[in-house]
Every structure is written in structure tokens, then in C-alpha cells.
Design a protein that fits this description.
With 604 residues, the chain is an alpha/beta fold. 45% of the residues lie in helices and 18% in strands. Strands 11, 14, 16, 17, 18, 20, 21 and 22 form an eight-stranded mixed beta sheet that branches. Strand 2, helix 4 and strand 3 form a beta-alpha-beta unit. It starts with 14 loop residues before the first helix and ends with a strand. The relative contact order is 0.13.
């Protein structure tokens, strides 16, 4: 028989050697698997040893001075990750901070308030809320002092100084500056870069002011986009200047001149009455302690000393929606980057609220630039369902942003409250895809395509929309826009013609939103809780509880999230190492959603 030749010559092998190699490889694989399992078990054991069930706060003295560092981070949601779990040191959310200042105002033990700020990450609506809380504190006859080692860093200190003007006295360290250099808005336009790579963005919006995809489509501002940003930035600047001038008792024109001359030295600021005293921090502390005969107590220790109310009291539930709105579960982790509001998580928590017989009203704190329309609609329906099922009122408190999908969620509220500098509106929709066909040509890559269904490849990045696909896609955008505007017009009782003027993607500040009936009133968390209490039928002098949501997760849930998101920490680190800010990257990532704010950055 003739031997059949093959194109691959047979290799002479040693069967024993091959078998030994296979056994070795399996042993290595199983060893790694075993070591991985042992590592996880050891990690659980060590973390359980490290975690502290109770953080021992310092005792509040009989005479106390409340101390708050506004340079610290006070996120909208309470920290609920593994790092907090095993560090044993809790942190305060923004609501916890406001609550502590409110109670300190009424607490006979607290004699004064000392704040510290230089470079802060607080948002403008948060600062507005804090200014009101400081005013309430001062209204009780107690004094509030603010110390700074310099407002901002080589300028950009508008937010910090705006907060400072709510205090009785502003003290500054010698040889520092008041960096009230104004307000600017920055927008990244990346169309030129995309063209170089052969990437073509094909996006459509409803309508001319819905500019979330403008950074991809254009190389500069359109007429409509520029007008919206000028209106937004101008409104913010005007409100801040008016607030500074009123609080310091000087003319608005003098503040505007100081802005144009900034950064201003501490000595010059003292001459202009922008501050009250130049000294070092120990000098301020010594004076306040001598005047009050009291001891300093950190706001964290003070907050942890606050006792929870008795059970079975009437309750106002406070639920925080902070971050991009999307389907699935909520995520709030330092490993993840920007916080995410998951529709599934919110619906589940609303069901939990429905089971609490003591809950008489819900305050929904919305701090979101928008996100997925489907998810926003799902949350809106879940809130409406809760209202119908439990027959309780819902009051919305808007944070720094409650726009686009964030505004859609707010429509479920019976009463909407915003800060004057809240950014809201942006009622519109956009969508599209990135077309990579030219990039594939540059790389000499050819994609074959076999379709079963006329529109099977409608979202393929390998070709532009065909005329038929474009018509179908735009019809979907029209349906979403119609649903969004009709719901808004019906719920807010706005004439359809007026609704068209207010929508189209336009962005509004809180005061403008009130004027245009998109929002009911101006105020912060305190105003929202008070309104919820009123609408919920809780008598003015009745003691009540505030139940915070989201509820804390279990240790196992936190560990699972850390292990699942772990690799993402390296991405943020690499980005920061190369000079990119994580917030800038998150801002660009938002453009994958259909109901979201444009990716702009406000520099104060």
C-alpha cells in the first residue's frame, strides 16, 4: 500500500515526556486555582479582622465649637464600600453634613462654628444649601467664622469665597490670595482627532439645543450651543456676584472689579472689605475658644453623637439618586469612577419603602446629569407606582444637576425644589453611532456582512445609516422626545407651545426653571424635608424620623463589588499619570446615553 503523504511531516515524540508535560501543566493550573481560592479566603479573614464594628467618636463637651473642613469630600451618597468597612472610620454624606449643622444651631452645647476652606470639591447647589444652613446657625445668635489659607489655587476660588461670605467673619492666612477670577465654561471638541483616525460620528438630536454629541460632531461651538453656555455661565456669575456683594455689604460693581483684578492679596482684600482679618489659624482658634470658653469638636464626631429617633415615629424617607442613570444595579465606589444610579436598585429600594408603615412622605434627592431614557422612565414609573400603592407625597430636592434624564425622574415628584444654581431642564434626546469604515480602510481590514432582516445591521459601526435606517432611527428619537415633552407638559401644566420653547434641549438654572414652571420653588434639603413633612400630614411640632436610602450593604456585597471593579482602578491611575482628569474622561463617557447633559466643565 502506498503511504499517503501529508503537508505536515510527523514529529517524533516521547510519549512519557508528553504525558509528564500534561500532568505538570494541569498541576500548575490547579495550583493557581487553589492558591487563588486560598487567597480569597485569607483576604476575607484579614478584612474581617481589620474591620471595626463601631467607630468610637470623641465625646461632645458641654461647651463645644463645631469645626468643619469644607476641603473634605462630602458626596451626595453615604460611603458604603469595603474601604470604609475595614478602616472603621465612617465618612459623612452631604445630607449628614447639613443635618449636623442644623442640629448644632439648636444645640445649647454648641457655642460657635468654625469652617475652613481653600480648595473645595463642593458643587454650586451644595454650596447654596450650606450658605442657607450657616445663615440658620447665625440666626440663633451664635457666631460663625471661616478660615482660609487662600481661596483657590492661583485663582479659581469663586466657589470657596462664595461659601465664605455666608459666615460672620472671614479670616485669611498672611501672604495668600483671594482667587475670585470669575467663571468659565470649557467644552472638549474632538471631531478633528476623530477625522485623523477615520472615525465618523453619526448622531442626531431633538433639537438644536441638545448638544451632548456636539463634542463629537463639531470642531467648535454652534450658534445655539454658544448661546446656551453664555446664558448658563452668565447666570452663575451673576448669582455669585450678587450673593457676595449682599453678604459683605459692598457694591456689586466693587465685587466685579475685584474679580477682574484677581487674584488679590490678603492685604488688598482686607482693604476692599472682602475679608475681616489676616492671621494664622491658631490665632483664630485661640480667640474663639477664649470668647466662648468652649472646646473644638470635629463635625464627624458631632454627627456620630447624634442619636437616632425612637422607632414607630412618623418618618420621611430620603432617597439619594446620585450619578448617571442606567439599567441594572447602582454603583458608588472609588474604583468605579463616576457614580451610577441603577434602575433595578432604585425600584427595589422603593419597594422596601412601601413596606415601611411609618413612612408618610418621600424626599427624592436628584443629583444627575441624566443617562438612559429607558432607565429614567423605569425609575419614574417605580416612583409613580409607589405613590399610588402607598398614597404618600414625593418631594424632589435637586442637587447640582437634575437635567435631561435626571429631570425626567424628577417629574414623578408632587413638588420640585431646586437651588438657584441647580442646572436642570435639557429636555431632549439624542442618539447615533461611531462609523469606523474609513478607519478599517486605513488598517486594510475588510468586514464581510450577512444579514437576516432588513435592518439587522442598523447600529453596525462598519457603515453609515442608509436612508431607510436613518428614517427608522430618527423616528425612535421623535417618539422619545414626544413622550418626554408630553409628560412634562401634562404633569407641569404647561401649554404645548410653551413646552416646545422650554424643551428642545435647553438648559436652565434653578431660578429660570421656577420662572418657567419646570420647578415649584427654590431651596435645599431643609426646604424639601419641611415640604414633605407638610404634604405627608405630619403636624409641625410632631417629632419625626428621617430614614436614609440607599440602605447599607452587607460586607459580602461590598467585597463582591470590589473584586468585580478592581481592574478599573488601574485605568483611572494610568489616565491621571498621563495628565487626564478622571472627571474629564467620565464627562466624555456620558455621550453614550440618549438623555444627558452636554459634556461641559464649569471652572469657578
Amino acid at each position: 500500500m502506498n503511504q499517503i503523504e501529508t503537508p505536515f511531516p510527523a514529529l517524533k515524540t516521547n510519549r512519557k515526556k508528553t504525558l509528564a508535560t500534561k500532568i505538570l501543566m494541569k498541576s500548575v493550573v490547579y495550583s493557581f486555582a487553589l492558591f487563588g481560592l486560598l487567597f480569597i479566603v485569607l483576604l476575607l479573614f484579614v478584612l474581617n479582622m481589620l474591620r471595626q464594628d463601631d467607630f468610637v467618636a470623641a465625646e461632645v463637651p458641654d461647651k463645644a465649637i463645631l469645626v468643619v473642613d469644607f476641603n473634605e469630600n462630602y458626596p451626595e451618597t453615604r460611603s458604603d464600600d469595603l474601604f470604609t468597612e475595614f478602616s472603621g472610620i465612617p465618612s459623612l454624606s452631604f445630607y449628614d453634613l447639613i443635618k449636623a449643622i442644623n442640629l448644632a444651631a439648636l444645640d445649647p452645647k454648641v457655642k460657635a462654628f468654625v469652617g475652613n476652606v481653600s480648595v473645595s470639591g463642593l458643587g454650586m447647589a451644595q454650596i447654596g444649601d450650606l450658605r442657607e444652613a450657616v445663615k440658620v446657625f447665625r440666626s440663633t445668635g451664635k457666631k460663625a467664622y471661616l478660615y482660609s489659607t487662600g481661596f483657590g489655587s492661583f485663582g479659581q476660588g469663586m466657589r470657596e469665597y462664595y461659601l465664605a461670605t455666608a459666615f460672620d467673619e472671614i479670616w485669611m492666612q498672611p501672604t495668600t490670595e483671594v482667587g475670585i477670577t470669575g467663571v468659565s465654561i470649557e467644552v472638549p471638541f474632538v471631531r478633528g482627532l476623530l477625522d485623523k483616525f477615520g472615525i465618523r460620528p453619526e448622531f442626531y438630536a431633538r433639537h438644536e439645543y441638545k448638544n451632548a454629541a456636539a463634542s463629537l460632531l463639531n470642531k467648535e461651538f454652534s450658534k445655539e450651543y454658544r448661546s446656551e453656555m453664555k446664558k448658563l455661565g452668565g447666570g452663575i456669575f451673576e448669582k455669585m456676584v450678587e450673593g457676595m456683594a449682599e453678604a459683605r455689604g459692598i457694591k456689586k460693581s466693587e465685587i466685579e472689579k475685584a474679580v477682574d483684578d484677581a487674584p488679590i492679596t490678603a492685604e488688598k482684600a482686607l482693604d476692599l472689605k472682602l475679608i475681616d482679618k489676616i492671621a494664622y489659624k491658631p490665632d483664630l482658634i485661640e480667640q474663639v475658644m477664649n470668647d466662648t470658653n468652649a472646646e473644638m469638636v470635629n463635625v464627624l464626631d458631632y454627627a456620630l453623637s447624634i442619636k437616632e429617633g425612637k422607632k414607630n415615629r412618623p418618618t420621611v424617607a430620603l432617597m439619594v439618586l446620585d450619578g448617571m442613570i442606567t439599567e441594572g444595579e447602582s454603583v458608588s465606589s472609588p474604583l468605579q469612577g463616576e457614580a451610577v444610579v441603577g434602575a433595578d436598585t432604585i425600584a427595589r429600594q422603593l419597594d422596601e419603602i412601601a413596606q415601611d408603615e411609618n413612612v408618610k412622605a418621600l424626599v427624592l434627592r436628584v443629583n444627575s446629569p441624566g443617562g438612559s431614557y429607558t432607565a429614567s422612565n423605569e425609575i419614574w414609573y417605580a416612583i409613580m407606582r409607589l405613590k399610588k400603592q402607598k398614597m404618600i407625597p414625593v418631594v424632589v430636592s435637586m442637587g447640582d444637576y437634575a437635567a435631561s434624564g435626571g429631570y425626567f425622574v424628577a417629574l414623578a415628584g408632587d413638588y420640585i425644589i431646586a437651588e438657584p444654581l441647580t442646572i436642570t431642564g435639557s429636555i431632549g434626546v439624542l442618539g447615533g453611532k461611531m462609523v469606523l469604515s474609513e478607519l478599517w480602510k486605513k488598517l486594510d481590514i475588510n468586514w464581510g456582512e450577512i444579514k437576516f432582516g432588513k435592518n439587522a445591521g442598523i447600529l453596525s459601526s462598519n457603515h453609515v445609516f442608509t436612508p431607510a435606517e436613518k428614517a427608522i432611527f430618527n423616528r425612535s428619537l421623535d417618539n422619545i422626545y414626544k413622550d418626554f415633552t408630553e409628560k412634562t407638559a401634562t404633569i407641569r401644566d404647561i401649554n404645548p407651545n410653551e413646552m416646545d420653547r422650554l424643551a428642545r434641549g435647553r438648559v436652565w438654572l434653578g431660578q429660570n426653571a421656577v420662572d418657567n414652571k419646570l420647578v415649584d420653588a427654590l431651596g435645599g434639603i431643609n426646604a424639601a424635608v419641611a415640604k414633605a413633612k407638610e404634604l405627608g400630614g405630619i403636624e409641625p411640632k410632631t417629632r419625626f424620623n428621617i430614614s436614609y436610602y440607599p440602605r447599607r450593604r452587607s460586607f459580602q456585597e461590598k467585597l463582591a463589588q470590589m473584586l468585580g471593579n478592581g481592574p478599573k482602578i488601574s485605568v483611572n491611575k494610568v489616565a491621571n499619570d498621563f495628565g487626564f482628569e478622571a472627571n474629564d474622561i467620565n464627562m466624555l463617557k456620558r455621550m453614550k446615553y440618549e438623555t444627558v447633559l452636554p459634556p461641559f466643565k464649569i471652572v469657578y
